[in-house]
């Protein structure tokens, strides 16, 4: 699960988060995408603040 924290706009930063997951996290981690559903969850935290989470299925990369 990845989160972009609180933002005053429910979509702020979600595209940047996806870019960072695929461009930075996956290439540098010991995990790879596990073919399955991806979820974006947006939570209304009140006072016009929203939190977005991205859930991606992953599996440990096979040892070389």
In short:
This protein is an alpha+beta fold and 64 residues long. It is 23% helix and 42% strand. The chain contains 1 helix and 5 strands; from the N terminus they run E-H-E-E-E-E.
Task: Outline the fold blueprint.
Blueprint: E1 2-7, H1 14-28, E2 31-33, E3 39-46, E4 49-55, E5 58-60
Antiparallel strand pairs: 1-4, 2-5, 3-4
Notes on the structure:
The chain has one helix at residues 14-28; strands at 2-7, 31-33, 39-46, 49-55, 58-60. The protein contains 1 helix and 5 strands, in the order βαββββ.
- The gyration radius over C-alpha positions equals 14 Å
- Overall body shape: elongated
Q: Poorly predicted ranges (pLDDT <50, ≥5 residues)?
A: none
What is the terminal-to-terminal distance? 26 Å
The DSSP helix count reads 1
Strand content range: 35-45%
Helix content: 10-25%
Structural category: alpha+beta
**In total, how many beta strands?**
5
As laid out across the biggest beta sheet, the strand order is: 1-4-3
Largest sheet: 3 strands, antiparallel
Round the mean pLDDT to the nearest integer and report it. Answer: 88
SSE string, helices as H and strands as E? EHEEEE
Record keyword descriptors for this entry.
1 helix; 3-stranded antiparallel beta sheet; 23% helix; elongated; 64 residues; alpha+beta; single chain
